[in-house]
Amino acid sequence: MKIAQGSPVKKRITIAIVALITLLIVFSCDSAIPTYTFTFINYSYYNITISPNEQSWESFILQSGTSHEVTTSNNPISYRYNYALVVYPVGSGNGVITFYNRY
Questions:
Q1: What is the distance between the alpha carbons of residues 63 and 87, in angstroms, rounded to a whole number?
Q2: Burial of residue 62 (number of CB atoms within 10 Å: 0-12, 13-18, 19+)
Q3: Measuring CA to CA, which residue among 45, 76, 74, 75 is closest to residue 62?
Q4: Which of 4, 29, 62, 98 could form an S-S bond across to 42 if both were Cys, CB 3.0 to 4.6 Å?
């Protein structure tokens, strides 16, 4: 069977092929959300509970002398911590937050 040039069937096939190619291009593009890694280090004597402040990562306990990494789509990271009267955080600007004894 020969399809006549300019026929409705040929136009539909052409439109279907163009639509398929367009969909393949759209869905093959990398639309990944960027992620950032932050490292918390505890040089204090206390075990510190660190929680997100209106962000969607998991709380954790940072034991004395240990470190913990958090990967999130938020930059900058916003967090809360306990023992604020006896420890203080120092951010290095490169994703590292270090806790020290206040006294």
A1: 13
A2: buried
A3: 45
A4: 62
The mean pLDDT value for 81-103 works out to 94
Q: Return the closest-CA partner of residue 86 out of 38, 33, 25, 45.
A: 45
Distance, C-alpha 78 to centroid of its chain: 13
For residues 64 and 89, give the distance between their C-alpha atoms in angstroms, rounded to a whole number.
13
Residue 89 above 90 pLDDT?
yes
Residue 47 structure tokens: 């075990």
Q: Residue 44 is encoded by which pair of tokens?
A: 């204090």
pLDDT (tens digit per residue) in 29-81: 666 889 999 999 999 999 999 999 999 999 999 999 999 999 999 999 999 99
Are residues 95 and 35 in contact, defined by beta-carbon separation less than 8 angstroms? no
Counted residue by residue, the chain has a size of 103
Asked whether residue 21 carries a pLDDT value surpassing 80, the answer given is no
Q: What is the DSSP letter of 70?
A: E
